[in-house]
Queue: 2 jobs
Job 1
Amino acid sequence: MNNPGDVKIPIGPQHPALKEPESFLLTLRGEKITSVNIKIGYNHRGIEKACEDRTYIQDLYLIERICGICSHSHSTCFVQAVEEIAGLEIPRRAKYLRTFIAELERIHSHLLWLGVAGHEIGFDTLLMYTWRDREIVMDLLAAITGNRVNYGINTIGGVRRDINAGHIDASLKAMDILEERTKYYVGIAQEEITLKKRLSGVGKLSYDDALRLGAVGPTARASGVARDVRKNDPYAAYTEIDFDLITDDHCDVYGRTVVRLKELLQAYKIVREVLKNLPDGPITVKAPRKIPAGEAVSRYEAPRGEDLHYVKSNGTEKPDRVKVRAPTLANIQAVSHMLEDGYLADMPIVVAAIDPCFSCTDRMISMHNCGTRKEEIVSWEFVHAKGIEWYRNKGIDFSQLNKKLHSMMNK
Amino acid sequence: MVEEQKIKQELEGNFSFLKEKVNVIRERRISVEVPLASFREVFDYAVNKLGFSSMSAITGLDEADNLVVIYHINKNGSIVLSIKVIISHQSPAVQTVTNYFSNADIFEREIMDLLGIKVENLAPGQRYPLTDDWPKDEFPLRKDWHLQRIEDKEAENE
């Protein structure tokens, strides 16, 4: 219920920092968020419609560009559906290579997220180190596929590029370095009281609410929901790979941090196993230009959670319908729930906790005070700095931890 | 595919009109076409008796003669059941399923916006995903819709 003291804060939708512009209308009573209204769709590009006018191969490259971070997720999800309709059994080596690229993508996405999370709470040394580490994976992806993002590795019937002994050697060395560093970050998350106090109890999402609101990926798993498409509906080489499904019962941003850190360790393990057991043989089978009439539902565990594609073919070289349900859409109701009854100072980290790309450049917020009818424009940095200062006044200060991490990394 | 076959038998056993309509496509994939008038009872049965307790997505499509809505629901994150209903172009409407799954809200707004399918009893809310100033009665995922229609309208207004 609104009262004259409530302050409404619209955030977005024109937000150059976001890959998917969103509009958040927050109602505040004091420092507490009493209600959240999220509007999305500002970045709707008509990709599904565009797919109907293009061939399957053209669509593959279009679909890959739905997301810059999880481009391999979308292209694999799409190509799996097409291959299922066409009755194509891709070579085992191709399955392993898809899994290899998928886990490299998960590693760079989770490291990116960890840096964003650090930045949003004032732990910028963590941002600097995790993004330095992320470059190791980006360099690997560039060497293997030719691109840092939008790898173009998939084709209908397999993959377009093979890997060589040099790639395998470089990848295994990279996994060793990254594992050592990730273990250090796990230690920080488990032992540093400043980090635990800052993230615990923030952005609460109970097990029941995660299920009810359809949350997916690390967001759901941090609320104890043991769901991961790689386990529940395995694809590519995941049927043959041994790894743990990570869950946590903290049900907050701290839990989401722990889940992603532990998933990084699992990703290194998967990469090693894939490379160790990489089968010999071809990397593709011949695919027909015209796909027989049919339909398929394909699922994929993207770094942010379950990605789902539905493809319907009509016997021509162009699909009749392509439907994409990306993980962010599945998590949007959960974000709204997490923000409600929380503090304004927690808004940046709660939103960032589901969106690893909420980090980049300029941000602008229009604040409208309903009591005074006064409206003012402030920057995202203002709210970001306000959140850090607000917690500093409550005794949670990352200054010492920033220095400590830096000195330990440089020993 | 023991569990998938069991689900097929239960659906066909409980609803005579589904006889030989339930298709186990492969492991963890089942689809069924349901008459619009019987959709509610089949959906309710799948959710409450068969344990399909999560909604992954709703797909809307235009098959030229008819419009189609497919509800993709899953059991413990594993088996996906796609329940398909065919509706006419003349009166394109379905009932909301937000009383079963609150996350269906955004998917239902999507089929309203892109295909012009009315979702009855859906709570008032913002449109998704088209812009606030998108012309009324222009549904871009309909097969007879092309961008030229918007460009022609804009030219007329100028």
Job 2
Amino acid sequence: MKLIKLKEVSKRYGQAAVLENVNLTIEEEEILGIIGKSGSGKTTLLNLIAGFVEATQGDVVYISKITGEEKNLSRNLHRVKKHIGFMPQHNSFYPKLTVKENLLHFGRLYNIEKETLHNNIKNLLTFTELYEQKDKLAAELSGGMQKRLDISCSLVHKPKILILDEPTADLDPVFQKEILQMLQQVNKQGITVVVASHNLDGIESICHKIAIVHNARVHTYGSLEEVRKPYLRDNFTITVKTGQDKQELIKKLRVLPVKKIIERDGSLVLQPEDMETTMKKLLQIINEDNLYLHDVDVRKPTLTEIFEDITVQK
Amino acid sequence: MSAIWFLIKKNITLLLRSKGSALTVIFAPLLIILILGLSYNTSSQFGLNIGVHSSSFTEDVTEFMDILKEEEFKIIKYESTLDECIEDIKNGFTHTCIEVPESFAIDGNTPKEITFYIDPSRINLVWMIQDTFKSKFDFKAQQVSEQLATDILGKLANAKEKVGAEKSKLDVVKEKNKAVSGSTESAKNTLTSVDLSVPTTTYDRSFLDNLSSEISEASQKIADAIEAIDETNLSAADKSSVNAILKDADEELDGAFMYINGTETNGTEIKGIPKLLGLMEQDLNDAKNKLTTAAGTISSTSSTLTSAAVSLGETVAAIDGVQAELSAVQTDIESQKVTDAGTIAVPLATKIEKVSAESTYLNYLFPPLLILVVMFSSLLLGTTLAMMEKNSPAFFRNFFVPIRKVTFIASTYLTNVILIVIQIAIILGISLFFLDDVAHLLPMTSLVLFITASVFTFMGMTIGYLLRSEETGVLTSISLGSLLLFVSGVILPIESISPLLRNITMFNPFVIAERLIREIFIFNSPFTVIWVDLAILLSYAIALFLIILILESLLHAHMVERFMKYHHKQLRQKVPKKNNE
């Protein structure tokens, strides 16, 4: 079921267009990942979805569950605020309050009954594995724990939609993974998640839908499959073991009809102009140079590859 | 060395680019100095309202009032009662009441007393009034003192002139007396020379006894003869005997005649009457001569004495004249009633009366101290709390919670007020130990302090909402508090501020609050007296609350927008940099 719709939405700050003609639909219980370069308008898009900024043009509407009617979000924000959980890019809690005090504070502001609130907090603390730290000052928590607390604060009132801006920023890979897993679990509890992040692998692993924002527009939007589709035949990865310098090999490969060669995690990703010709010539080079072909993977392009393709090529 | 210069340059650049900090750090002190400079760039105390009361507004009083008017004081006449003037001091309308005698003329050794009625709680104003009026009274006292001295000197000059004149008269008297003295000496000498010696001749009167006895005997014998003749039948014998007797008598008479003639029958001169008379005549002649001489002497002496008497009469008249003149001088000097040197030097005595009950300095200082504490605490707490909330990482999240902004404002305000109330309670509690008989004033005092705390809290909050950094906000609050304090009359009397700024400062919440506390604390004024000020203070609080509400709404309406714009701009600026790399 549709929850929020952005219809031909544009947002300008003065003369600068941040977003133009954005069309987006957020469905219930899905995870929507928004990716884009810094300054591409991700945060603005999140704020438009949350209703905290008004569109310069177009409409951001939410669909009433009772009537099915579309209503302007920012104009009815006071009604829908309690259904929205928002986690800004930077931690947004009181560092000098304990974990529990922070949760109690924000919970009370949502006018939740005392007993319900205590249950919510207890569940959240267990869920975010912060129970042991509940009496610690927020400032004394590690970065990952602080992010978990921030998510907890956004969830304390049991929102229908959780909007997160860069939840994994400044975290090490272990914490990033933890947070993403947590978001998946949150989603499993029936909460719609909209997340903007630079962690493309993470987004790829948890999101049902992706929106790639580029040049003030939502360049690509849809499920991961839908996003990948235009890039399916254009990529393959080779992993070779060679005594040669990898740069020398890349030089040789450049004579192949490839659009682009990317070095990633010890492998080379080739984007051929013509798959067959490229593959033949590649095998020929391997043979001539007596290379050991460890792995050839003609596979689906990753979100990172797609993102790079969009942002670099374009 | 160049590194220091670059660091300094960087610091100044950063400081100036942070508009709030630049404004506060650089311009706030300048602004304070400018305002204070404009306020106190005067040496006149032309903001003083001076009440003058006298039993009668005579020419002296009016003249005195004119002297006061020279300083541009506003002089208010209180013709009916002094109490009216004193009430106005308590209300702050009048700064001092001067009770002046209807005349400044000094008519005794007691100086004229001028009584000042002042509000002792406004200590600096008291000093200012005393200082200002000292010159006025010195001037007036000098005038009176000069008048007294002129009177005395006039009398002395007059006496000197008269005594000088009389002195010359006495010189004449002296000369005349000398002359009289000479005359009387001469008369004395003349009289001494008069011979009034009595002759020492002893007149032998024995013969007169003999003569007397002879005459007696002769007389007897004659009588006997007469008797014998009568008894005798005239016998011869008888007749002879009678004859004998008569003969004897005759003889006796002859003897007597001998003495009378002074010669015996034989012609021998004897000591008889003629001799005696001769001697006596001689003596009398001598005496006559002497008396004639004496008469001449006395006559000449008499004329001398007569002229001396005339001279003496003249000197007596002269002395009478001198005496009369001296009496006049004495009367003139005695007419000078002020004889006390102290009174002549200081003919006007000033007396200072306090319009409130005698108290300690703490009582008088308590109202401004109380407001000072409340003002700075409220301003700083208001700013800090608003800043803390605004700059808190949780501010963004608070923005998304379904709570009205007024609730946040109210919570910040109430937090502040609770803390201030605790402070006030502690201060008032402690004050009970030091100040006597103030317990019954505490409810009204608390009400005023509560409203005052609200006003300053809202002020602090406004600063907090307007400025970005906490340091700048605190600095601005301190600057604002200092400014309000400087133009409150606590440090320097507001009466010495220029009129325009003084009129503005009368609306300074610190001034109003301090006045309210003073009226309650020192004068025990009832609610009916203070309600106007209280209403003004309350309206400030309400107005500031509304301003904050509008400010907060405006800030929130644009906050995300501004944040996003800023955020977007920052990120967009980073991207080309990366691409260039």
